[in-house]
Design goal:
Layout (H helix, E strand, L loop, with lengths): L18 H24 L4 H18 L4 H10 L2 H29 L4 H21 L42 H16 L3 H20 L5 H24 L5
Helix pairs in contact: 1-4, 1-5, 4-6, 4-7, 5-6, 5-8, 6-7, 6-8
């Protein structure tokens, strides 16, 4: 899959295709985000079902020996305050501010791969929406009786999401698109990084996001695993689409 494949040689930096094309792409990105947020909010499932699914997830993680969310949150709470602050900031900004800023950077500096990156996000959003519709799931912070702490400031918790930040779905936890986006950004950035430090940061970014989702009690570990699987499915879908599409020219 081309986003994961290391190039044999450095690709030249291509200049963007003019101001009108840039404006058009920015409007398209806004439309993608607005559509995703609106549909996501409309798909909020019933609370009772979402909580039942949360207890199913806990049972599955215990059976697998990976029910570690409490330990991660306690570590963040007992660490110096900067740790939880970093987790909050990362969680509140990684899926929109960080991700879309990276997409714009790729458009400006690595224009040749921008269409595939954009299309991967579109397919990821579609997969995420299907997950929210089929499996409404309460996050740890909204599952009573398990001892999780809601670490997010309710007056700011959704302002990061997009221009439509007032829209929300409390039970859109499975899959974690925070994780899927972070892996996509990390892999793409690593592929084009020219310095060891940049590659290291790109490699560590997905781990930071997974830590943030768990420390803030916004995702179960199985949500994060499902987010990674969602990215794999999105890349596979685009690759199959490319192979079956008739070549032009």
């Amino acid at each position: 899959m081309s986003l994961l494949r290391s190039p044999a040689r450095r690709e030249p930096v291509e200049a963007p295709r003019g101001i009108l094309h840039l404006v058009g792409q920015l409007l398209l990105l806004l439309a993608i985000d607005a559509s995703y947020e609106t549909i996501r909010a409309l798909l909020e499932g019933p609370q009772a079902l979402a909580l039942a699914h949360a207890h199913d997830i806990v049972a599955a993680e215990r059976a697998l020996g990976i029910f570690q969310e409490h330990r991660v949150q306690r570590f963040a709470e007992n660490a110096p305050g900067v740790v939880m602050d970093a987790a909050r900031i990362t969680y509140q900004n990684c899926q929109r501010l960080f991700a879309w800023s990276f997409v714009v950077f790729v458009y400006l500096r690595r224009n040749a791969v921008y269409p595939r990156l954009r299309n991967t996000i579109v397919v990821l959003d579609a997969i995420g929406l299907a997950g929210y519709a089929l499996y409404p799931l309460a996050p740890p912070r909204l599952t009573p009786g398990l001892g999780f702490v809601d670490t997010l400031d309710p007056t700011h918790a959704h302002l990061h999401s997009s221009l439509l930040g007032a829209l929300t779905n409390l039970y859109a936890a499975m899959p974690s698109l925070h994780t899927a986006y972070a892996l996509l950004i990390g892999v793409t950035a690593y592929r084009f990084a020219r310095h060891a430090l940049t590659r290291t940061l790109a490699a560590l970014y997905p781990a930071l996001v997974v830590f943030a989702t768990v420390a803030t009690a916004n995702h179960w570990l199985l949500d994060d695993a499902a987010g990674a699987a969602a990215l794999g499915l999105a890349l596979l879908t685009l690759e199959l689409s490319r192979r079956v599409r008739p070549s032009r020219g």
